[in-house]
Please model this.
Amino acid sequence: MVHHRRRATFPLSARAKVFCFFFSKNKALFFEKRKQKTFAPGNPVPYALLLLLAAASLLLGAAGVGIPDPAIFWQLRIPRTLLALLVGAGLGLGGAVLQGVLRNPLADPGVLGIGGCAALGAVAVFYWGLSVAFPPALPLGGFAGAAAGCALLLLVFRRAQSGPGLILAGVAVSALAAALLSLALSAAPNPFALYEITFWLMGSLEDRTLLHLALAAPPILLGCALLLRLSPGLDALSLGEETAASLGVPVGATLARAVLGVALAVGAGAAVAGGIGFVGLIVPNLLRPVVGERPGALLFPSMLAGAALLLIADIAARAAGLWLPLAAEPRLGVLTALIGAPFLVSAARRAAA
Amino acid sequence: MIGLTDFSARLGGREVLAGVTFAPVAGTFTALCGPNGAGKTTLLRALAGLLPATPRPDPRHVAYLPQGARSAWGLTVRQVAALGRIPHADTNPAAIDRALAACALTDLADRRVDQISGGQARRAMLARVLASEPRVLLLDEPVADLDPAAAHDMMLLLRAIATQGGTIVAVLHALDLAAAYADRLVVLQAGRIVADGKPPHALPAAAAAFGMTLQHPSVPLLRPRSKD
Model:
């Protein structure tokens, strides 16, 4: 479809419009007028949708549909819903920032290896059986792992402060985490630990408590605040690091802030929720046709959409656990991967075209 | 105003610039010529303060366009131009509109830069530079890979900017374009300035730097199209 500045407008029936939408190459055209309004921070519609999803999430659980007794509501449903919102927001925003910083639509918080380090910390707790004696040890271990991974990442990254340097540092950190994780798995003291570890790695928000929420919320909120302020720097970086530097943007500091923010926002989420992939990858790519491609303009919508996506996935997991003949709830990480894999295939096909 | 005095630079152990003294003259269009590897880009980056040892000039006054600059994302032409306002920390729509109009992009303002022609995309990058309303424009090969007509359009535009008081330093490979439009020709060879002067005077040295001789003492030219 050719994009003319002044397009002739034909009166189209609703069906014709839907038909045109599905068969057009440039779907952004159809959102052109609406996109400015829909994702402006002042527009109440996205917040209302998030509230609606949150309400649905609060009303659904292992105890059935409806308002449960106060103990379940406060001890289980509230933490679970808020954690889904927070973890999803961190993942969506982290993905948008990393894609902007690396100028690559396939970047994902996973490339930094912070999630892997959180998993390693949690596995170490399983390995020594600490989580049985002291349940809060598990998120604390994940937290320590994420923090150590973040420190290591910043240490390696300091040597080469550029996009490729960041990818290199991330690959090094995730390779190290993966190697140590394999070591722990192969030397697991008993089959039960192995089973627990594998389950944890798939990611879930089941049975999370107010403690998990209290542990994860401050770093995620701090990380998101740090990342949201990177907007002008990311815009400048879309023309390359040299142009950004000539525009007065401190490129090294912007990248370092992005790493720190992503480590906080994603690492804390991974520490309490386990390995949840693909959200950071999909969300910015889903929003680009709607919001436009300016990386700075994607940050806030990605945060909201990440929260919404994880909330939907978690509701789906609980609904499946409630109504499908399954032994246990499907894991959250499995659901997001099931959504993410076909998306990756379509993105690859679009990139090849 | 920016400038370099007896400036030397090393890249990977090789001396790229050896004792170069250069300062652009306000309101003039200077063309930097010389064979590949002569140090033109390094000189421009030194002026822009992008080498480790060089002071960074005020980005509101000095704008730099790197070689082959392109947008990683499908930004609209207007969004690209708006990036030029980052040093000013505002979104001055009047300045952006003026930059777009100067580059004849007003009608393309809402098109994506990855969906317009190479010449138009290059003009969008220049609009980004102009939107900063800089005093000095440092342009690295602004007409590389443009067709002859688009290259002449770009040179006419630069000429007009200089006539209105802008200071331009541009790396140019096409000697005929440099001779036709620039006020001053600076010829670099192996990290040294070997000629510096008005194009008719510096042109033989520029040709010699490329290992060529001029067939005609007068400037051999493709004339620009007449603008109607």
Remarks:
- The two ends of chain B are 36 Å apart (CA to CA).
- Chain B has a mean pLDDT of 87.
